[in-house]
Amino acid sequence: GLTALPAGAVRAPLSSPAGPPARCVCYGLGRFAACPAARDQLAFLLLLLEELRVPPARCALFDPVFSGREAAALEALGLRLLPENEEGKHGVEDSATLFYMVHCGKALYNNLLWSNWSPAALSKLVIIGNSFRGIEERLLSRILERDYSYIAKVLKGTEEVALPSHPRYLDTFNDTSVHWFPLDKLQELSPEVWNFVEEPTYQDCEDLEIIRKQDRAAAQS
């Protein structure tokens, strides 16, 4: 079944000048012990790693909802768990990195872009996640620019290809695209775009779909 969603669909953007990803970060996979869609997303991630020849040890995952058993299962598959909630703020340093973030909240994509806000870093990112075009179509531009300004600013520098739909996996991968950021497109954006690098705060957001570090700490105390 899952191979019908060809991992090859992500091969084109991954042969970008930055080279194929040397590592992978996965956020928001969900409770795969209980949720069939999350299991399918995990299976597709494993197929992708195989296709891209990324060793499981170079794939790190985080989801605040993972149970102890789920964490142990991921480690048994050879994958790594990130020790803490980065809120998506993960810098790529120098290696091309695939971010596997299916159905994550907009703030998580926005934080990731902010953490890599330069043409050099963004050109090393590939993001598999909610369609940026879809986000742009569904949100008032005023809200997009106010709350998710890094998504708004990067749209003109983004290449996006929808994952091919498959009747069996409509809910699992609906609205999911592969996004990459070609260096030449990023360099065409105006210099002002790169000058503003304030960390996102989300004070006015009503439906913030992200579990933040402080929310988690408050819930546990």
Automatic annotation (TrEMBL):
One Gene Ontology cellular component term attached to this UniProt record is: cytoplasm
Q: Which InterPro entries match?
A: SRR1-like, SRR1L
Record domain SRR1-like: where: 19-180
Q: Which Pfam families match?
A: SRR1
User: What does the sequence similarity comment in the record state about its family?
Assistant: Belongs to the SRR1 family.
**PANTHER family noted in UniProt:** SRR1-LIKE PROTEIN
Q: What is this protein called?
A: SRR1L protein
Which organism does this record belong to? Formicarius rufipectus
Identify the coding gene: Srrd
